[in-house]
């Protein structure tokens, strides 16, 4: 049974969700955290979203940490991604952000699954090696 969504109470901030994406729209494929060209950030409803280019992704070995820091700065509550390393995962977890990792498919498919409660919450990193890219 899907949870009923309630409107945000006065003074309450709606949920913000970021999806790492290879494309700049809802048809983009889910991307790994560190190398994601774009973030699609949703606030409250799927219709209310913005696209952010991830200018940090070419930052070498620290790109995942800097990407996680940017998502914390954007005040997201949930991150949906392909893979995530241990340090970036820990940074998001310490900020109280729920992480759904190991996701595949398009942004819209992942968003639909998340809204129906069908994406398991990640409790550890899903990638532990160096990509060498």
Describe the structure.
The chain is α/β, with parallel strands linked by helices. The protein has one domain: Nucleotidyltransferase, domain 5, CATH 3.30.420. The protein has three helices and five strands. It has a five-stranded mixed β-sheet with strand order 3-2-1-4-5, sandwiched between helices. β4, α2 (86-94) and β5 (98-100) form a beta-alpha-beta unit. The radius of gyration is 14 Å and the shape is globular. It starts with 15 loop residues before the first strand and ends in an 18-residue tail after the last helix. The model is unreliable at 1-8 and 129-133 (pLDDT under 50).
What attributes does this structure have?
3 helices, five-stranded mixed beta sheet, disordered C terminus, alpha/beta, Nucleotidyltransferase, domain 5, disordered N terminus, 5 strands
What portion of residues belong to β-strands? 15-25%
Rg, please?
14 Å
CATH topology, anyone? Answer: Nucleotidyltransferase, domain 5
CATH superfamily: Dinitrogenase iron-molybdenum cofactor biosynthesis domain
Q: What string gives the helices and strands in order?
A: EEEHEHEH
SS-based class: alpha/beta
Unreliable runs, pLDDT <50, ≥5 residues? 1-8, 129-133
Tell me about the largest β-sheet.
5 strands, mixed
Write the topology of this structure:
Blueprint: E1 16-21, E2 38-43, E3 45-53, H1 63-73, E4 78-80, H2 86-94, E5 98-100, H3 107-115
Parallel strand pairs: 1-4, 4-5
Antiparallel strand pairs: 1-2, 2-3
Helix pairs in contact: 1-2
Give a quick precis of the structure.
The chain has helices at 63-73, 86-94, 107-115; strands at 16-21, 38-43, 45-53, 78-80, 98-100. It is 22% helix and 20% strand. The longest helix has 11 residues, at 63-73.
